[in-house]
Structures are given as C-alpha cells and as structure tokens.
Design a protein that fits this description.
By secondary structure, this protein is mainly α. Helix content is about 50%, strand content about 10%. It has 6 helices and 3 strands. It has a 3-stranded antiparallel β-sheet with strand order 1-3-2. A hairpin with a 5-residue loop joins strand 2 and strand 3. Helix 2 packs across helix 5. The longest helix has 20 residues. The protein is globular and about 50 Å long. It starts with 12 loop residues before the first helix and ends in a 7-residue tail after the last helix. The C terminus is likely disordered.
Length: about 130
C-alpha cells in the first residue's frame, strides 16, 4: 500500500472528514455497509459498481485502519471474514445522506439516467 513520504497537513476538521470518507469509493463502501452489513467480501463486491478487487481491498483496509469499518475474521474452514461499520462509521451515514440529498437538489439528472449506486443505498430519499 502506498504511504506518503510527508505527513498530510490538515488545517481544519473538514479536511479530516473529507480525508476519512471522501474520494470515489469510501462513501460507496460506507453506503452499502450501512444498508446491508455485515457482508462478506464477495457480497460487498457484488453490491459495488465498477470497482476492482485491488481498489476494494485497499479501500476496506484504509477504512478499517481509520476505525470506520470493522473486519471480523472467523476461525472456520473455509475462512470467513465479514465487514461492517463501526460506531464511528455509523456516525458518518447521516452526513453522507445529507450530502446526497443536497446534491439531488442541485444535480440535474434524467430519471432514465439514475445513478445505480445511489439507488442501492437510497441516500437521496433519506430512507433508512
């Protein structure tokens, strides 16, 4: 996994939050886990749209390291690993829902072009 040579300088709490759940895939993983956790890797992968295994694995590892996602490994044969949101991860969900609702007001999309991932997590309607 890539490690920056210099420590990232965070100037305000917003930058911390955006670093924690910003980017293309982190919010989507949080979205799916908030609706359907716990999930095994393969089930989570099938819920995601257009993500590679390497990117999903790296995203889960990063979210786990930051205390957003919990990884539970069961001592079974075959091995079983499940992912779910931690309390810290669950606390991010209302924030992401608010961002999605705000975006729905200002992002104009035709009904026939509905975003597949948004339909899975239902952030736009605020339902949970």
């Amino acid at each position: 996994m890539y490690h920056a040579k210099l420590e990232k300088e965070l100037r305000c709490p917003l930058e911390y939050g955006l670093d924690l759940f910003g980017g293309k895939w982190k919010s989507r993983v949080i979205c799916v886990l908030s609706a359907k956790a716990p999930l095994r890797y393969s089930a989570l992968r099938s819920e995601m749209v257009n993500i590679t295994d390497a990117v999903l694995a790296a995203t889960l590892k990063e979210l786990s390291a930051k205390g957003i996602v919990q990884r539970v490994s069961y001592d079974e044969i075959p091995p079983r690993v499940e992912y779910s949101l931690t309390e810290k991860g669950q606390s991010v969900v209302p924030i992401l829902q608010s961002i999605c609702q705000w975006s729905g007001v200002y992002y104009k999309e035709a009904p026939e072009n509905a975003l597949a991932q948004c339909a899975k997590c239902d952030y736009r309607s605020g339902a949970r």
